[in-house]
Amino acid sequence: MNEKLNHLIETLEPSTISEERKGILNELVEFIQSKKDKNLPVNLNFICTHNSRRSHLSQIWAQTMAYKFNITEVFCYSGGTEATAMFPVVGDTLVKQGFQINKISNEKNPVYAVKYAEDRHPIVCFSKTFDADFNPKNSFAAVMTCSHADENCPFIAGAEQRIPVRYDDPKAYDNTPLQLEKYEERSLQIATEMKYVFSKIKS
């Protein structure tokens, strides 16, 4: 793993997560553990309204933490109730935190390759709907990362389980002096919570 990224992960303290929040995250722990106990692949689809911020951060950090804790056969995806584009500040924030990101297309909805380790394929990130062909059609957990998507998607076809793990939207701080700080804060919150989740999984 990239040295800067690994160092950042080592500094994250899951002990700072509240007991109430751990109760929410434990539903995700239990889903992953149940799959591992049956030697089945773990498919996680992180869903938000626009698939532009929180769902990408969650997908990337979950895949990274699975690698960090050597939890194999974990496949993380993301999607929205509509497709827009991954917000550029998300990529800027992740690069600052130690990821390598290559923009591999230049249309309105660019495709990014996000690298967290030399011996792993990069995570392919672009905005898409949760049911796009790129995403799993069955045997996955729908992890709802925002309240709007959670409330407006009463049914996710093919999902074995629906798990709400909601995050405040850093978009509220776009074009303000607090923008960079708030994106970094949200990314670190998600990273810390995904570290908690994958540190609980028994191989």
Brief digest:
39% of the residues lie in helices and 18% in strands. The chain is of the alpha/beta class and 203 residues long.
Notes on the protein architecture:
With 203 residues, the chain is α/β, with parallel strands linked by helices. It has a single domain (3-200), classed as Response regulator (Rossmann fold). The chain has 6 helices and 7 strands; from the N terminus they run H-H-E-H-E-H-E-E-E-E-H-E-H. It has helices at 3-11, 19-37, 54-68, 88-96, 147-152, 179-199; strands at residues 42-48, 74-80, 100-103, 112-115, 123-125, 140-144, 159-164. The strands form 2 sheets. It has a 4-stranded parallel beta sheet with strand order 2-1-6-7. Strands 3-4-5 form a 3-stranded antiparallel beta sheet, with helices on one face. Helix 3 (54-68) links the parallel strand 1 (42-48) and strand 2. Helix 2 packs across helix 6 (179-199), helix 3 (54-68) crosses helix 6 (179-199) and helix 4 crosses helix 6. The longest helix has 21 residues, at 179-199.
Please give the structural blueprint.
Blueprint: H1 3-11, H2 19-37, E1 42-48, H3 54-68, E2 74-80, H4 88-96, E3 100-103, E4 112-115, E5 123-125, E6 140-144, H5 147-152, E7 159-164, H6 179-199
Parallel strand pairs: 1-2, 1-6, 6-7
Antiparallel strand pairs: 3-4, 4-5
Helix pairs in contact: 2-6, 3-6, 4-6
List keywords for this structure.
three-stranded antiparallel β-sheet; alpha/beta; 203 residues; 39% helix; single chain; Ptyr_pPase_sf; four-stranded parallel β-sheet; Rossmann fold; 6 helices; globular
